[in-house]
Amino acid sequence: MFSPISRELVTTHGYSLNQINLWKVGENCVDKLETLTGHNCRVLYLAGEHEGGRICTGAGDETLRFWNLFEEKRTAERFDLR
Question: β-strand 30-37 against 43-48: which pairing, if any?
């Protein structure tokens, strides 16, 4: 998913790290900025907020996690909704 407010890209992954990666998109390259972990199973779903500041991920561990990614100060707030 591309950020609507910055030149950044978010990708989700499964096996073995179950991670969310944040990438900076440049003119001729893509650089990894950060790797976020928190799910116990592979990340299956990614949805972004229309304003662009937050994403929600869903995983095989039956949890949803909310991440504040596209702010000046990056934070990773996670809420389990079981």
Answer: unpaired
Residue 75 belongs to some domain of the structure = no
Beta bridge partners of 61: none
74 touches 67 (CB < 8 A): no
Residue 24 lies in a domain: yes
- Cα dihedral 60, 81, 75, 25, rounded to 10, equals 40
Q: Report the alpha-carbon distance of residue 81 to residue 74 in Å, rounded.
A: 22
CA atoms within 13 A on the CB side of 58: 8
Q: What is the pLDDT of residues 3-43, one digit of tens each?
A: 877 788 899 987 778 999 999 998 899 999 999 888 889 99
| 64 vs 43: CA distance, rounded Å | 10
Token pair, residue 74, equals 């990056």
* Residue 29 located in a structural domain: yes
The whole-model pTM stands at 0.75
